[in-house]
Automatic annotation (TrEMBL):
<protein>
    <submittedName>
        <fullName>Spore cortex biosynthesis protein YabQ</fullName>
    </submittedName>
</protein>
<feature type="transmembrane region" description="Helical">
    <location>
        <begin position="46"/>
        <end position="63"/>
    </location>
</feature>
<dbReference type="Pfam" id="PF09578">
    <property type="entry name" value="Spore_YabQ"/>
</dbReference>
<feature type="transmembrane region" description="Helical">
    <location>
        <begin position="6"/>
        <end position="25"/>
    </location>
</feature>
<keyword id="KW-0812">Transmembrane</keyword>
<feature type="transmembrane region" description="Helical">
    <location>
        <begin position="69"/>
        <end position="86"/>
    </location>
</feature>
<keyword id="KW-1133">Transmembrane helix</keyword>
<feature type="transmembrane region" description="Helical">
    <location>
        <begin position="124"/>
        <end position="147"/>
    </location>
</feature>
<keyword id="KW-0472">Membrane</keyword>
<feature type="transmembrane region" description="Helical">
    <location>
        <begin position="98"/>
        <end position="118"/>
    </location>
</feature>
<dbReference type="InterPro" id="IPR019074">
    <property type="entry name" value="YabQ"/>
</dbReference>
């Protein structure tokens, strides 16, 4: 191994030590440190350190074909110590700023979608349901009036003849019940969309 390769290896391992410190802070920021033992946290730690070890070996493999020397560990420790002493506070501040920005951007995006998409769709559905209720109610009143006009002479004649037209009365009652169920269904749908909007 040439002197140039050794110097490049030490420099890159120092950077990797800084990277390791930043990765640990990021990991603990999102997952935290449990107050008591948890198997899930142990598994997460195992995956984290395996991923960091594989990444470190991959970088070392590209630098000096994977040769592990004592000065490599010293450079790695030096980078980690440099991060803890000089860069940790700055990195944590930047990380918190990025998290706040991401959360704010997510909330803004959700509100924008609600205002521009969900609210207009709900309003349109409310209008459609209201129009359907008005149309059905109007049609029902017209049909009901026509049926009364058509049936009235027959009913009057049968009543004069002493015959009770019971099946027409039953049909009229069933038709009225069916129309009330349809009206209740549309009322429930309209109330549901109104509550969802609130």
């Amino acid at each position: 191994m040439t002197l140039e390769v050794q110097f490049e290896t030490m420099l890159i391992m120092t950077v990797m030590g800084i990277w390791l410190g930043a990765a640990m802070d990021t990991y603990h920021r999102f997952l935290g440190s449990p107050r008591r033992f948890k198997w899930t946290h142990l598994i997460n730690d195992l995956f984290f350190w395996c991923a960091q070890g594989l990444f470190l070996f991959y970088v070392l493999l590209n630098v000096n074909e994977g040769e592990m020397r004592f000065y490599v560990l010293l450079a790695l420790l030096f980078g980690y110590a440099t991060y803890r002493a000089l860069l940790q506070t700055v990195y944590r501040s930047i990380l918190e700023s990025l998290i706040r920005f991401t959360v704010a951007f997510y909330r803004f995006t959700v509100r924008l979608i609600v205002v521009l998409v969900i609210t207009p769709v709900k309003w349109l559905l409310q209008v459609v349901l209201a129009l359907c209720m008005i149309i059905l109610s109007t049609i029902w009143r017209i049909v009901y009036f026509l049926l009364k006009v058509i049936i009235a002479p027959f009913r009057w004649g049968l009543e004069k003849a002493g015959v009770r037209f019971t099946f027409l009365l039953k049909w009229k009652k069933n038709l009225y019940t069916f129309s009330e169920k349809i009206r209740d269904l549309f009322s429930k749908l309209l109330n549901w969309f109104t509550k969802r909007k609130r």
